[in-house]
Amino acid sequence: MARIIAILSDFGYSDNYLGIMKGVIKKISPFADIIDLNNNIKHGDIQSAAYQLQTAYNYFPDNTIFLCVVDPEVGSERRAIAIETTNKFFIAPDNGLLTPIIQNEKINIAVELNNPKFQNKNISNTFHGRDIFAPIAAYLAQKMELDEIGKIISSDTIKLMENLPKLDDNSIEGKIIHTDNFGNLISNIHLDDEFKKKRNKQDNSCRI
């Protein structure tokens, strides 16, 4: 049985881009099980995409492949990458989208997706979702290994999100990164940040 592919993108549903990506996947791996995680990310909103991924991936079965295409730097020198953790796979542009995975999971292997054997023959400057990311997801769904598909890289070289919360002894400064369908405002501040702030204050009080 093929692995599950969960798609996270900013393609929306008014154009055929998402459908084309699914067609590419099915052409290579006909029995792949494709799930739409969220394809209505605001165009180019990497932080919102990272949040969506962070709050979802643990609810999926082991060996799920997360195909993440929010790529405002498409056509530039940014890398296309894939990583394997203890029990999941993640494919994305190297633009910070995978920050929560890098920070919270053990990375077994990371690769740069630069092997033309596993890409479409003619690579578009603007549609790497179709020509690079979707084919890789399809081959992974057939249980290929990452080191067969790309060049091994150090996970330490993967780009992390900018504008992370700023902590000092008395405050945490963050930003709103997502507004859900119910009007809830989601910030990039987590409980761990609050605990760090409290711990810092306690440490300071001990030194005074």
Helix-strand blueprint:
Blueprint: E1 4-9, H1 17-28, E2 33-38, H2 46-54, E3 65-69, E4 80-85, E5 89-93, H3 99-104, E6 107-112, H4 128-141, H5 146-149, E7 151-153, E8 166-167, E9 172-173, E10 176-179, E11 185-187, H6 191-207
Please explain how this structure is put together:
This protein is an alpha/beta fold. It contains six helices and eleven strands. The protein has helices spanning 17-28, 46-54, 99-104, 128-141, 146-149, 191-207; strands at 4-9, 33-38, 65-69, 80-85, 89-93, 107-112, 151-153, 166-167, 172-173, 176-179, 185-187. The longest helix has 17 residues, at 191-207. The chain starts with a strand and ends with a helix. The model is unreliable at 202-208 (pLDDT under 50).
Indicate the radius of gyration in whole angstroms.
18 Å
What is the chain-wise order of helices and strands?
A: EHEHEEEHEHHEEEEEH
Look at the structure and give the mean pLDDT: 88
Name of the CATH architecture of the largest domain: 3-Layer(aba) Sandwich
- Secondary-structure-based class equals alpha/beta
**What's the CATH topology name of the largest domain?**
Rossmann fold
Backbone shape: globular
The counted number of beta strands is 11
Strand content: 15-25%
Question: What's the CATH class of the largest domain, please?
Answer: Alpha Beta
Q: Sheet bearing the most strands, described? A: 7 strands, mixed
Enumerate the spans where pLDDT stays under 50 for 5 or more consecutive residues: 202-208
CATH H-level superfamily of the largest domain:
S-adenosyl-l-methionine hydroxide adenosyltransferase, N-terminal
Strand order of the largest sheet: 2-1-3-5-4-6-7
Helix content: 25-40%
Count up the helices: 6
Query: Between the first and last Cα atoms, what is the distance in angstroms?
Result: 62 Å
List the domain count as a whole number: 2
